[in-house]
Design brief:
about 325 residues; mainly alpha; about 0% strand; membrane; single chain; 2 domains; about 80% helix; Stage II sporulation protein M; transmembrane; SpoIIM-like; transmembrane helix
């Protein structure tokens, strides 16, 4: 290789890269045009290859140091700038994209709430009419503790909060993912999971109500339930979106309908996961804490629920839901 000729030829590219880097560092990479950004990326890759060649052929400290500096600066603009942009996209999604997706999916969310509510009603009625029914959906040790000792079972969480919180998060995420995956079975799996969880809540509500434990029970449930139950409804809506695409694709092909509805479902799930993490922390550390008055627990639950509803349903500028992170 003719080193001098190679240096002369490549110095033109290095100078162009340095000029673009200087502009990006001084005014920000957003001031560059799309063409300049593409050129910057191309010249950065070229400089990286030239650096490797210079090191291999030992072209001298001056050339190597110069190229190392160019490559370092180029990396900062090309990749770290992209990371900052990705971070901004995530923030923008949770600021506007997720609420827009919720509002666009309101009919499916309402359907999920109604199915869950039907399960609660049936669990309540069946347990009142046939006390033996509760044994089918409620663990025996919980029934025995409530009926024989007049106590709730949440005290077992106290003292093992970190472990309990982790297990609660894992269980809740498993339930929501199952509700989503149930949509693949034409939505029937989603409907069953929503209905069964409602049935379980209805039976437990009847059990604690029959033994005058409703007030402390709902004081425990309300703080984390203000996020956990809406998360279940949203994941149920996501599953129903998939089921609707499979059964009623309209004029679209089923594959196209599933792709489009799947994008909405994925965006709903991007919002569900943080809700479940927060709910798990509350359920592990706040809800079972006997030192916190029940009235305060109800207040926290009300505040969280109102805040969530305002966040999700506050009117926003009309636009297509923002793609998830």
């Amino acid at each position: 290789m003719d080193v001098q000729r190679w240096l002369v030829r490549q110095e033109v590219h290095w100078a162009s890269l340095e000029k673009l880097l200087h502009q990006a560092e001084k005014n920000g990479i957003k001031t560059l045009s799309a063409r300049d950004i593409r050129q910057l990326s191309s010249l950065y890759r070229l400089a990286s290859a030239d650096l490797a060649r210079a090191q291999t052929r030992q072209l001298g400290i001056g050339v190597t140091d110069y190229l190392q500096d160019l490559v370092r600066r180029g990396y900062s603009q090309v990749y770290q700038g992209r990371q900052r942009q990705d971070g901004q996209e995530i923030i923008r999604f949770y600021q506007q994209g997720f609420p827009q997706t919720v509002q666009a999916s309101w009919a499916y969310i309402l359907a999920a709430v109604l199915i869950f509510g039907l399960g609660i009603y049936m669990g309540w009625c069946y347990t009142w009419q046939d006390p033996a029914f509760m044994q089918l959906v409620i663990p025996e040790h919980i029934i025995r503790l409530v009926q024989e000792e007049g106590k709730l079972w949440m005290g077992s969480i106290v003292g093992v909060e970190p472990l309990a919180s982790s297990q609660i998060m894992t269980n809740n995420i498993s339930v929501t993912l199952s509700a989503l995956a149930g949509g693949i079975f034409a939505g029937l799996g989603t409907l069953f999971i929503l209905w069964y969880n409602g049935l379980h809540i209805g039976a437990i509500a009847t059990l604690v109500g029959q033994h005058n434990l409703a007030y402390p029970f709902w004081a425990f449930v309300f703080p984390h339930g203000a996020l956990e139950l809406p998360a279940i409804f949203l994941s149920g809506a996501a599953g129903l979106l998939l089921g609707q695409a499979l059964i009623f694709p309209g004029r679209r092909s089923r594959l196209l309908a599933l792709k489009q509805q799947g994008q909405l479902a994925a965006q709903l799930m991007f919002g569900v996961v943080p809700m479940l993490v927060i709910a798990g922390l509350i359920e592990g550390f706040f809800s079972p804490n006997p030192a916190i008055p029940d009235g305060l627990k109800y207040l926290v639950g009300i505040i969280l629920l109102v805040a969530l509803l305002l966040y999700c349903f506050w009117p926003l500028p009309q636009s297509n839901p923002t793609p998830g992170p």
